[in-house]
Design a protein that fits this description.
One of its GO terms (molecular function) is hydrolase activity. Keywords: Hydrolase, Metal-binding, Zinc. This is MBL fold metallo-hydrolase. InterPro entries: MBL_Glyoxalase_II, Metallo-B-lactamas, RibonucZ/Hydroxyglut_hydro. Pfam families: Lactamase_B (PF00753). It is a single chain. The chain is α/β, with parallel strands linked by helices. It has one domain: Ribonuclease Z/Hydroxyacylglutathione hydrolase-like (Metallo-beta-lactamase, Chain A, 4-Layer Sandwich), CATH 3.60.15. It has a 6-stranded mixed beta sheet with strand order 1-2-3-4-5-6, covered by helices on one side. The chain has a 6-stranded mixed beta sheet with strand order 7-8-9-10-13-14. Strands 11-12 form a two-stranded antiparallel sheet. Strand 3, helix 1 and strand 4 form a beta-alpha-beta unit. The longest helix has 10 residues. The chain is globular, with a radius of gyration of 16 Å. The two termini are 30 Å apart.
Length: 207
């Protein structure tokens, strides 16, 4: 599998394009600058299947409708944040931007952890709240990778001072869910460089 990291927008929020050998792709967190995502998809002749949101803060959803409309693909989001897409206070744009960010409702709401199959992809969904109430992480065993959103960063963790955030909940999520993954699992975070479970267990000062 091939993973392309695209830091997008003023906060350099990482959007990821995960491609398999059939050129099918999943798109994680299309935060802004839709044209950057289009370029990757079309230059490689990829076939988008779905958009997976780790959570629904404004910097992760800014290009959501543009991308889904161009490829006519569904959006997955945890049910605890089903109202965030249409609420600029909940998604944070009303608090941090001079403009409000909105998107249409998700096509599929995630209600529990477990396996998810999309095309030829098999993922495991982990509920990892704390940064936000509906934060999830997507583990792709075949790629030895987890897309952690803003739960776990390289030597950092997500902020917990936004609506619905809770520090103790986030620490529990990381230790009980993400740290249960194999140590060689690569961690693709919502911001910053990739890391690994092994490295974060040893070097993350918050954990």
């Amino acid at each position: 599998m091939n993973i392309i990291q695209l830091p997008l927008g003023p906060l350099e929020t990482n959007c990821y394009v995960l491609a398999n050998d059939l050129k099918e792709v999943l798109i994680f967190d299309p935060g802004e600058e839709a044209f950057e995502i289009f370029d990757v998809i079309e230059e490689n002749q990829y076939k988008p299947l779905a958009i997976l949101l780790t959570h629904a803060h404004f910097d992760h959803i800014g290009a959501l409708d543009e991308v889904r409309d161009r490829y006519n693909i569904p959006v997955y989001l945890h049910e605890n944040e089903k109202d965030f897409l249409a609420d600029s206070t909940k998604n944070g744009s009303a608090l941090f931007l001079r403009r409000e960010v909105f998107a249409r409702e998700a096509d599929h709401l995630i209600s529990k952890e477990g396996k998810m199959e999309i095309g030829n992809f098999t993922l495991s969904v982990f509920e990892t709240p704390g940064h936000s109430p509906g934060s999830v992480s997507y583990y792709v065993k075949d790629a030895k990778s987890v897309f952690s959103g803003d739960a776990l960063f390289c030597q950092g963790i997500g902020r917990t001072d936004l609506p619905g955030g809770d520090h103790d909940t986030l620490i529990k999520s990381i230790k009980s869910k993400l740290f249960s993954l194999p140590e060689n699992t690569r961690v693709y975070s919502g911001h910053g460089p990739e890391t690994s479970i092994q490295y974060e267990k040893k070097h993350n000062p918050f954990l």
